[in-house]
Design goal:
Elements lengths: L2 H17 E9 L4 E3 L21 E3 L7 H16 L2 E3 L4 E5 H27 L1 H16 L6 H11 L11 E7 L14 H53 L7 H17 L5 H14 L4 H6 L1 H22 L4 H18 L1
Antiparallel strand pairs: 1-5, 1-6, 2-3, 4-5
């Protein structure tokens, strides 16, 4: 392996490790569905064309019986996504350190809600199952003689009451990103040892190149996503102002201030140019109230002009390759390596 390649890979990796962790959140619950086959309805599968008829998944219980879990699941995923970046093809979500405490607190709250919803569901599962089976029996009588087979299939699809709680879980795991320091050789002898050593060196070189490309791409994509989000926000605010008869609302200005705070906590890669642009925008244009802007046409013109410049700057930066950001980011890891060498 080229020593320079290793140093560059390690510096990027160390910088990433210092700036955040990976999070993986799993929300699992019984979906209350059963995939029906032609035989379940007393039909001959050889007489059924997949091109024309697809039975698919059918609900065993009403949708609203599981609505609380669906809502918690969507909120959990939205919470994680708003505080993180997809890491290396989606193996996890990278959470910058400043967002970690807020994220885990919110996930803890959602896990408590999930636990309460699970207790309620388990407590009411038996009567819910009985009610659903009564509805299925009524519906099955219209199937011209195949009702018994269908009812048996549906009954077998409900988990036993004693096992239903095992189908529910809300888990969050945090991982520190790391790479092996070296690839160890197995204890072998003679020519085999040389062949194994060569094979492992080749694997290490290949892994080094992929790691470099993956980390480089991850940082660039993360920077680009924040820049694109900034451009979208500026466009949205301009459209909101343009479509409002009363000019700008205070909640719109608050939205801008909240976004700038959020940007700072997510800007783990150190996009100094955009962060400085946003801070200057806050300093120059977010010190006034919405009422002040509505009463001062000149100030209002400055606000819209500033939003236009912010959008143009963000778009221009998003179209760049973020090479300078990656280079500075890698130097964070280099400084750490130098300090411990």
């Amino acid at each position: 392996m080229n020593p320079n390649d290793y140093s560059q890979n390690q510096s990027l990796l160390d910088a990433v490790c210092r700036r955040g962790v990976l999070v993986a959140t799993s929300v699992r619950y019984w979906r209350g569905c059963k995939r029906l086959n032609p035989e379940d309805l007393g039909l001959n599968p050889t007489h059924i064309s997949d091109r024309l008829i697809q039975l698919g998944h059918k609900r065993l219980i009403p949708r609203d019986a599981l609505a609380a879990f669906s809502l918690i699941e969507s909120r959990a995923h939205a919470t994680v996504e708003s505080s993180s970046f997809p890491f290396l093809g989606g193996i996890g979500r990278f959470v910058p350190n400043p967002r970690l405490g807020e994220l885990t607190d919110r996930l803890d709250q959602l896990r408590d809600e999930f636990r309460e919803a699970t207790l309620d569901f388990v407590a009411g599962y038996a009567p819910l199952r009985d009610t659903a089976m009564a509805e299925w029996r009524e519906a099955a009588y219209h199937l011209n003689g195949s009702a018994e087979r269908l009812i048996h299939t549906i009954e077998q699809s409900f988990p036993p009451a004693g096992d239903i709680a095992k189908r529910f879980a809300f888990e969050t795991r945090l991982f520190q990103i790391a790479a092996p320091d070296s690839i160890r050789l197995e204890v072998v002898s003679g020519i085999d040892q040389l062949e194994v050593a060569e094979d492992r060196r080749r694997v290490a070189d290949d892994a080094s190149r992929r790691l470099q490309a993956d980390l480089d791409g991850f940082i660039r994509e993360s920077v680009a996503s924040l820049r694109e989000e900034t451009a979208r926000l500026a466009s949205d605010v301009l459209a909101t102002i343009d479509g409002s008869e009363n000019g700008v609302h205070q909640r719109t200005l608050n939205r801008l201030g909240t976004f700038i705070d959020s940007f700072r906590s997510l800007n783990f890669a150190g996009d100094q140019q955009l962060e400085q642009t946003l801070e200057r925008f806050r300093r120059e244009l977010l010190q006034r109230s919405a009422e002040d802007y509505r009463n001062d046409s000149g100030a209002m013109a400055s606000l819209t002009s500033g939003l236009t410049r912010l959008r143009e700057t963000a778009v221009q930066l998003a179209r760049g390759d973020a090479r300078d950001v990656v280079a500075r980011f890698g130097q964070m890891g280099t400084r750490k390596l130098a300090a411990v060498s």
